[in-house]
Records
---
Amino acid sequence: MQTDFCKELGIELPIFAFTHCRDVVVAVSKAGGIGVLGAVGFSAERLKEELDWIDEHIGDHIYGVDTAIPQKYEGMDKTTPEALVKMLQEAIPDQHREFASKMLSDAGVPEWPEGDDEVTLSFSAVQAQALIDEALTRPNCRMIVNALGTPPDDVIKQVHDAGRLIGALAGRLKHGLAHKAAGLDFIVCQGSEGGGHAGEVTSMILWPQMVDAVAPLPILAAGGIGNGRQILAALAMGAQGVWLGSRWLVSEEAHAEPAQRESYMNATSEDTVRSRSFTGKTARMLKNEWTEAWARDDTPDPLPMPLQGYLTFDAVRRTSRYAGSGDCQKVAFNPIGQVVGQINEVESCRDIVFQLLNEYTDALDNINALTPET
Ligand SMILES: Cc1cc2nc3c(=O)[nH]c(=O)nc-3n(C[C@H](O)[C@H](O)[C@H](O)COP(=O)(O)O)c2cc1C
């Protein structure tokens, strides 16, 4: 199972774990794969604390950091985070603010305490730069990954000059080709069944097309992988590794309020939707009253990214912290992919990795048994 890309990185298993939780990063890297910390919700100071903790606990293992610099966004001309945030806050229409705020109060979601700025949002190059600078001070951080677009040329150069690899997510062939043309080292190719931002083409169709289109660049297959059979399928289609996001959300190490975990555990694969209602770009999440309300004709349309993200920032942090209050789950942000229907138990990341491996080996044996020995 050790692919060339694993060898290049020096990891045993081609299992890449996208997560916002430092404990998941450490657990998966220690189990032989590699954890990649999503930093979009962190300020540079907070990321420093998270990486300090990871560095203390991860031993000799390596990890990655993921940022979100969209290809195009409102306020791209702003050169400081302060100017960008001010412009975005002023551009949000009152009608949108009132609609969002009423939905939260109708659902009984408590207000966010004043002065608590534990959570932030960095959907832009000016904000992500400080995160990348921090990540590159860490010798064990071997890869930077970017969501939502090809990273700017100066970031690619900076990461390469620091001797690390840089990759990016792609949900469309043309995005993968743009990543290759920009000189990225690998592509995370995500089909539409995946959690978080997702395009329209399914993994079964997109992965092999991407493998062929960007060869010899390594592809990590993402979107819809939750067991070893799906890993075998991805590797059979030419992927050099698999990139899983949803699978870790209900692991023992993931930080989640019990009510959110329960929503995930009770959901079937038909209970997700691709919705623009939280970030402004289509992202897959659990369907609820919030996602349905923003899709109606008689309600405001979601704003473009990152405006909608700034508008719903309060909803995201409140519904995460107060997941079990009132009817919070009716309006909560619960991003997850269609594999949610396969996830029925809370297990440790280590057990999940072993299970993935065992299922992969069994599936491979079954395939090999189809070929008669000569
Ligand atoms: C809760 C959640 C949040 C995500 N946030 C990000 C993100 O900030 N950056 C990113 O590159 N990908 C993000 N993704 C997408 C994952 O990196 C990954 O591509 C996706 O989860 C793979 O599909 P799967 O959910 O079927 O495993 C997120 C996915 C989930 C489930």
Note: The chain has a mean pLDDT of 95.
---
Amino acid sequence: MSESDHPPLLEVHVEAKHYTARTVLDHLSLRIGHGEIVSLVGPSGCGKSTLLRIVAALDRQYHGEVHVNGTPLNGPSSQIGVIFQEPRLLPWLTVADNVGFEAGSGGGRDPRVAQLLAEVGLAGQEHTLPKALSGGMAQRVAIARGLFSQPDLLLLDEPFSAVDAMTRMRLQALLLSVARAHGTAALLVTHDLDEALYLSDRVLLMAAAPGRIDREYRVARPRPRDRRDPVLADLRAQLLERLDAFEAV
Ligand SMILES: Nc1ncnc2c1ncn2[C@@H]1O[C@H](COP(=O)(O)OP(=O)(O)O)[C@@H](O)[C@H]1O
Ligand SMILES: [Mg+2]
């Protein structure tokens, strides 16, 4: 079968993205296959969030194109779920109505909401209001909401940066389990190299000014992974060495 019969899940070509006179992204291409987990790491300000916003169709002011399942992306798509650093829940809606928000008022009664809440460890919390949730619980709700439209791809921008270390590890495990259960791919921005190496099939290292993909690191280890795996430690050393080289420039 030729490749054109099976377009990649996501294909991004950004020729250029400018903020006023400054080029923020320059000739950046990436592809993600179905079910693949890819992390984006790189120096602060290199354009990771800008790239994610382009893929989410939240930013259309760029030169280039994004294809999802071979179709040009022309606006926010139900094939793509987005999870930000802050849960961004609507405080006046119950947990269930936040998860089912996309289905409109009463979306919380959709049977998929209760199932998603059970999957993220929040069974029975349908009627809880966001103010009663811990940061980790709120982010679980955001993950359930991101999955509600049954997307093929989840976009996550530093999703676990605001929670404590133990919660962070639990949420990482949760992300892996829901991604596997739903066959969902993920593009994850993180500044945590260990997180990137623990979760991803590939880690893309971005360079700054202008933002571009510098190198790709394949993490050819089965999941679930051992966080102390020497293969991960070796990749981490390679990534750090390359990041140090950026700073020496
Ligand atoms: N709305 C904006 N207007 C002008 N410059 C911006 C805007 N958003 C981001 N930038 C700049 O674009 C660059 C990339 O930002 P960003 O994508 O947020 O980086 P990262 O997520 O990698 O830290 C930074 O230099 C940032 O200051
Ligand atoms: Mg960012």
Note: The beta strands are 10-19, 22-32, 37-41, 63-68, 71-72, 80-83, 153-157, 185-189, 202-207, 212-218.
